[in-house]
Amino acid sequence: MKDRLEQIRQNAMAQIEAAGALEKLNDIRVAFLGKKGELTSIMKSMKEIAPEERPAFGQMVNETRSEIEKKMEEMKTELARKAREAQLKAEVIDVTLPAKKSNVGHRHPNTIALEEVERIFVGMGYEVIEGPEVEKDYYNFEALNIPDNHPAKDEQDTFYINKEFVLRTQTSGTQVHTMETQELPIRMIAPGRVYRSDEVDATHSPCFHQIEGLVIDKHITFADLKGTLAEFARELFGEETKVKFRPHHFPFTEPSAEMDVTCFKCGGKGCRMCKGSGWIEILGCGMVHPKVLTMSGIDPDEYSGFAFGVGLERIALLKYEIDDMRLLYENDTRFLKQF
Predict the structure, then answer these.
(1) Per the annotation, does 116 bind a ligand?
(2) Owning domain of residue 16
(3) For residue 114, what are the contacts with CB-CB under 8 A and spacing of at least 6?
(4) Which of 15, 91, 167, 240 can pair with 195 through a Cys bridge, CB separation 3.0 to 4.6 Å?
């Protein structure tokens, strides 16, 4: 029995020495010290030993158990140390390497320009209102004094959903909705995406963005229009910017005008950007046509107003000197990161 106990001790020590992982060490513990382990089995054989020898044999079993447990604890500490060293070696950080940068995106030039325009007009007391992109033909054309047989409707030919609904060609429909539902006076701008059946080139796209403004109140004159847009131009392009109004025609305004600003590249002296004229066309504007006011339920004898519209892409192209409108839609991060 003593020889068997010694053999158990030697086998346990050899297996513990050969254990290469903590999981293997646990298996060895179960095999030798568990409820069905070899030491437990040999204890059950004590009845075969003479009564006078049992105390000495029991002491030997306990000593063997203590040796095995001590050896296992030492090996457990050693294996844990090696595992920790391996982990630290695998997870070592070279602090001299450049840090990884998180790419969180970049604001689009259109977004930057829109936020600037909104900041200017909100500072003047205007409200920013959005409208539907799928608009009734009535609000997109007829309510703006553009009947079915009007030539201006051909110029703004758009994508029809059916005979009643179109993809809007301008955000002016939002102005009509506002005039019909909101109490007077009105001071608003209506930014948004618009659609026209244009061919794609450096200056045209079938989908682009507009910002249109509207003011309705008592005693509004063309002088108010000029003063407002002159201040807008100075805020957007610089304090030295001057404006010029040229007569034009829009069905929904009377009188109507195109507004030019002094070239912010050359200061009005003439350069490649302004084609030598010193001026750059920036937007269309005019006094709201009395018929448009009447169709929206506003008395033109008591109220008057002005409206204006500017292409958001045009502002971005001019402000950032971009030569091709298509660059705004290609989503090339090398281009976007310049702004």
Answers:
(1) no
(2) 2-90
(3) 191, 209, 211, 312
(4) 167
